[in-house]
Amino acid sequence: MTATKITVTDRKFGARAFPPSVAVPTATERLSRADRVALGKDVREATPLQAHGEFQPGASRDPVGLLLGQAESRVPELVPIRHGRMLVSPFTYYRGAALPMAADLAVTPTSGLWVQLCGDAHLSNFGAFASPERQLVFDVNDFDETLPGPFEWDVKRLAASLAVAGRDNDFSDKDRRKIVLAAAGGYRKAMHDFALQPLLDVWYAHLDIEEAVGEFRSQIKAKRFQQAEGLLAKAHTHDSTQALGKLTTVVDGRRRILSDPPTIVPVEEVFSDVQADALYELIGTVLGKYRRTLQSDRRHLLNQFTLIQMARKVVGVGSVGTRAWIALLDAGDGVEPLFLQAKEAQPSVLVDYAGRSRYKNQGERVVAGQHLMQAESDIFLGWTHATGADGVDRDFYVRQLRDWKFSAPIEMMRPSGMLLYAQLCGWTLARAHARSGDRIALAAYLGSSKRFDHAIADFAETYADQNEDDFTALQTAVKEGRAEATTDI
């Protein structure tokens, strides 16, 4: 069988036009495998693999201005905390600077091979958590910025994060490059493997983290392996029962969430001028809307729980200032807890560069993207919207606060450990992209050589330089009074 040459009209996406001689098929088109391979090769001619190593900052770029623009829609008293957390190190700055990087990625050479993007695929946004079958699985675990877009934007976000984190950990240039090559190579090789598998096999594929660590045992020193096993064992204790002991106390016979401003503040303290009865009536209505987004069996399960109390919680780095709430529920006499987290979902940082979401509710956008990219998702994952005390209608997504959740201690990693972790992240990101994109065209585009790997490694180091300049720019903005920063530690 001979593959047909695919030529179509020019197609716009994001801030750039895709080369007119090549096009990405629509969801309704069904090409043969040979045609999909031909598509990937045609794309490679239009956007060579080496082009992904390029980054040239625009003369008008203003990362601090973009960050200050985000502050306008956030809780004013929490914005300085966000800036303070970002200024701990260049890596924490990078974690909070998804929007400036989205603007930068939009002007880099692009493949036009679209997938469902995480939108913020830095290495700390991968981690382990409990599957519905109660296995500890490893996956992407943050989808606030998810949106369809060119696959390489996620790969570059991951790769640059490894370079930045490696610098923070004082790794050598050689070690950092090996780590980034491991991530890019892991992504490329995994995509080739997925291209050969039936689609259902790709859909069901997942990474059992305990099994994966066991496979790496021969490559890890005994002491480091024992430490890894200890961290995984600890992850099994990160659940609602553990959170109950850490986040609550008993007052006059009633379980109450501990107040620890500004990190955790009970809702009654946040809205002290509103009657508690009226407040919880509103919260009940909001939770009712959320329940309707769950499938029927999970809705039945949630109906067995009664709301006890809610509190505002400051989470993450880049998310600080968006509205996040934790809800304590119980199905027994104070001994069967469930902690849910409702987090505000604002438009993705990619929206100005990759187009608007098909979902009107930003919480639904997050949930849909998570279901599409994750092999296993939280059984309580859903969305809702609520009108705040200021009269503004906001979207939220809801999930469990803790369910065996575990994030790798990046600052404690040695080069060998980060290299193995980079491989896991590369495989996981490829699997997520293979579920939503054309894995066969992607594999054909990436090819079997290491040209893509080295291009991504070149980009990562160049962008790590830019990140250090941007970190300094935010420091200067704080010193000059353009931005405010404080610490909550």
Protein described:
With 489 residues, the protein is of the alpha+beta class. It folds into two domains: 47-112 and 130-236 and 412-479, no CATH class; 240-400, no CATH class. It has 19 helices and 15 strands. The protein has a six-stranded antiparallel beta sheet, sandwiched between helices. Strands 4-5-7 form a three-stranded antiparallel beta sheet. It has a two-stranded antiparallel sheet with strand order 1-2. The longest helix has 29 residues, at 451-479. The termini are far apart.
Topology:
Elements: E1 11-13, E2 16-18, H1 33-46, H2 63-71, H3 79-86, H4 90-96, H5 98-105, E3 114-117, E4 126-130, E5 136-140, E6 147-150, H6 151-168, H7 173-196, H8 199-204, E7 207-208, H9 209-215, H10 222-235, H11 240-247, E8 248-251, E9 254-257, E10 264-266, H12 267-270, H13 276-291, H14 296-302, E11 306-313, E12 324-330, E13 337-344, H15 351-354, H16 362-373, E14 382-387, E15 393-400, H17 415-436, H18 439-446, H19 451-479
Helix pairs in contact: 1-18, 3-4, 4-6, 6-7, 6-17, 6-19, 7-17, 7-18, 7-19
CA gyration radius, whole angstroms: 23 Å
Individual helix count: 19
> Strand pairing plus helix content: what structural class?
alpha+beta
- DSSP E strands, number: 15
Oligomeric grouping of the chains? single chain
User: How many strands, which pairing sense, and closed or not: the largest β-sheet?
Assistant: 6 strands, antiparallel
Range of helix content: 40-55%
- For the record, the count of structural domains works out to 2
